């Protein structure tokens, strides 16, 4: 069972809600509400519309729409230079080498090279020279790979002091945790919670909650995201940056490290927003 669906099921049980699984994998969950039913599928919740979800999934689109509203690392996109001819109108360069030269002209080293779509730190590279950039592009544009993408991104490197996942519901911060690598060992994946020993640590510091909420407020003024997990970092100079937004945040690691109750509370708030509350509570209010 998908980790998010498992945790949502637990929230439904604790709230006494009527729900059912609709697939042999148990990864589609239907909740019976007072006026309508709601479907949750894998990582997805019925909060963002398709447009918002697609914008978050496509990092190039997201950056284009939001970089003037909230501080983000400089980002450039590069279409596959050797792709099918029908996509030639999107190509600005005809080789990996030409892309690498453009990256070097626009970015200081080291530079981040990553695929445009995807998560989990797959096909994300910190490149220190031209050869490293070309190797990264070769992997991203490998059509035989399950992690293939037809767009690669170059992004300026942020020297990160602290990295957080901030989960927002209708513009309100409802969960904040640090992706802590103080006692972790890097094993090839740059995403902190994929390090050996990386930990998700819940942050209750209200001053930090306020700081991050204030930093993110301009994003929600620009883009009507109802439900998102923002990867926000503080650099070594104390500056704040948005790295990316996830319209379907996963809770596997935070549940592993902080326990199920943290996410049960999150889902209780999500369900309340959808108008689905505990029958006992609803009866008491009536």
From TrEMBL:
MF (Gene Ontology): ATP binding; metal ion binding; ribosomal S6-glutamic acid ligase activity
Q: Does the keyword Transport apply?
A: no
Pfam family for this entry, one? RimK
Enumerate the Gene Ontology biological process terms. SOS response
**To which species is this protein native?**
Herpetosiphon geysericola
Pinpoint the ATP-grasp domain residues: 76-272
Name under which the protein is recorded: ATP-grasp domain-containing protein
Q: Which GO terms describe its cellular component?
A: cytoplasm
| SUPFAM superfamilies (alphabetical) | Glutathione synthetase ATP-binding domain-like
Q: Which UniProt keywords apply?
A: ATP-binding, Nucleotide-binding
Secretion signal span: none
**Which InterPro entries does the UniProt entry name for this protein?**
ATP-grasp, ATP-grasp_RimK-type
